[in-house]
Write a structure and sequence with these properties.
The protein has ten helices and no strands. The protein has 206 residues and is mainly alpha-helical. The longest helix has 29 residues.
Length: 206
C-alpha cells in the first residue's frame, strides 16, 4: 500500500519506475522464494539442458524451438560466472520488472496522453493477468514478455513516438527464442511496418 501511494504521489519519473519495478520483481519473485528448488516442470528441463550445454558446449538432439533461451542463459553464464540456476530462475522476472514499467509508462503517456501516475499504476495490474506467467523462465514466458514489449514499441512507433528498429529487433529476438511462438509477433510487426510504409493515401497511419 505504501509503494502504491508513493507511486501516485511522487512527481519523479525515475522513482516511479524504480518502485514499479520493485513491485513487479517482488511479485514475480514469489515462486523462486516459495520453491527454492524450482517451480514448474518445464523449468527443470530447460535448466538441466542449459547446464549440460554450459559444461559440454552442445547437446543433442538440438531443439531449435528452445535454442534462443538456452544460448542466452549459457552466454550469460560464461560472461558473468553466475550460476546457471540463478540466471535461469530470475531471468524473466528480472527482465519483466525492469522493462515493463518503462515501456508501458512511456507508451501510455505519449500515445494516449495518460498521466504518468495513472500509467504507472496500470503497470501494477500486470501480475493479475492470469496468462502472463512471468514468474518462471521458459522459452514460452520469455516470448510472452518480448511480445508485450513488441506490441507497446509498435504502438509507440506507428504514432511517431519511437523507432521501427525497436519492435523489429524484439520480433527477431522472439523468433530466435521460440520460432513457433515468435512467428505471430513477427507477422504483427511486419504488418505494422508495411501498413505504416504504404504509399497509398488513406492507408498510411498518422
Amino acid at each position: 500500500i505504501a509503494l502504491f501511494i508513493a507511486v501516485y504521489k511522487i512527481q519523479n519519473t525515475f522513482i516511479r519506475w524504480a518502485l514499479s519495478a520493485l513491485h513487479l520483481f517482488v511479485t514475480f519473485g514469489v515462486a523462486p522464494i516459495l520453491y527454492p528448488l524450482g517451480f514448474g516442470f518445464d523449468g527443470f528441463i530447460h535448466r538441466a539442458t542449459e547446464t549440460w550445454i554450459f559444461e559440454h558446449g552442445v547437446i543433442t538432439p538440438i531443439r531449435p524451438f528452445y535454442i534462443g533461451q538456452h544460448s542466452l542463459i549459457v552466454w550469460l553464464g560464461h560472461l558473468t560466472r553466475i550460476s546457471i540456476f540463478y540466471l535461469d530462475v530470475y531471468l524473466v522476472p528480472l527482465l519483466a520488472s525492469l522493462s515493463l514499467p518503462a515501456i508501458v509508462m512511456i507508451t501510455l503517456k505519449r500515445v494516449w496522453n495518460i498521466e504518468e501516475k495513472y500509467a504507472a499504476l496500470l503497470v501494477w495490474l500486470i501480475p493479475f493477468v492470469f496468462f502472463l506467467s512471468l514468474h518462471l523462465t521458459t522459452p514460452h514466458n520469455l516470448v510472452i514478455l518480448l511480445m508485450m514489449l513488441a506490441v507497446f514499441a509498435t504502438l509507440a512507433w506507428i504514432t511517431n513516438h519511437g523507432s521501427w528498429i525497436i519492435p523489429v529487433l524484439l520480433a527477431i529476438a522472439s523468433i530466435a527464442t521460440h520460432p513457433l511462438l515468435g512467428a505471430p509477433i513477427a507477422l504483427f510487426v511486419l504488418a505494422a511496418v508495411l501498413i505504416r510504409k504504404l504509399p497509398v493515401t488513406g492507408y498510411r497511419l498518422p
